[in-house]
Amino acid sequence: MDTLAMEAPMFSAAQDAVTDRIRGVAAELSTIVEAIDKGQIYPAALMRRLGEAGAWGSHLPRDGGADLAAAIEGMAVVAEHCGATAFLGWCQNALVWYLANSGNEDLRNAHLEALASGKRLGGSGLSNPVKSLSGIEGIKLKGRKIDGGYIVRGNLLWVSNLGEDHLFAAICEDTTGAPVMFVADCAAPDIRLTDCAPFLAMDGTATYSVQFRDAFIPDAMVLAHSAVPFVAKIRAGFILLQMGMAIGLIRDCINIMHEMRGTLGHVNKFLEDQPEDFEELLAAMEKETRILAATPYDTSEAYWRRVLALRLRGGEASIAAAHAAMLHCGARGYVMAHRAQRRLREAYFVAIVTPATKQLRKMLAELPN
User: Fold this and answer.
1) Residues 118, 353: Cα–Cα separation, whole Å
2) pTM, whole model, 2 decimals?
């Protein structure tokens, strides 16, 4: 059967058990979400506990295939409480996805288990190279091959889920112009993390500018000496995993709208967008996500088009749902203590994080008709 025509698969009992464990840990976000939003807390300890619950290892490839559905659902459960923590989850899951698909066995043996279990945390520094591969900007990191590895120089503006003992992925351009993908260690003496200016939201995500000062990257840390075919392999997973942020945020925006019916239903019924509208949209989006998540190695153009279209829909629907939630709350949602205004700020992040809405539209427009 054509995988693109399949019905959305249901979660297995094992996947449901992982989701239940994640839900138990994620519930604790209610007491710290405002501090995370203000940048007062980076929830590293909770991220490690989510790893223990299975949040960062459910999408590991098995028997030549992989299913991202449980990982996406896990992040959606987190996003129901906190968009910043869900984004951190995407950073972690993306890094695990890269390592799991690398042909560098030494790299996998050294770091994959620790990252997948949450014992070690890390990020995904691919915003710049993903834009570069779409012709939006040039690659910021330059590498020079030497015996045993590369010397890398340059700056990355924003990389999240970082700390002194964290790892992150990046791509440099070697002297021939070919991209090389690798994992860097924040503890390396020639890598420096510098604070970023405050953001509209997401300040609790341990986001830094990263400077490579002729940093040595050993071959043992190289994900792929030829990054282009490797990125083609991981690209669908990179994008699909972001759907957890959108799905969880939209779920909570629907909840907010329902919560307002008791006191404001008599006037909110005149608003154009009702929670039932978003429930229908969300159900269709979740179904499409599960279908596409089951075959992330599909290289067909039809599949790739659906992945891009789904991700575009996720960002646009996040903004629409958060906008509607604010209108349903009225002045109550305009108070800083109410989560509706935070959801609106988080929704804009879903729409602008790489690949952003405009990049997704560009990519879709450039696909053959």
Assistant:
1) 23
2) 0.95
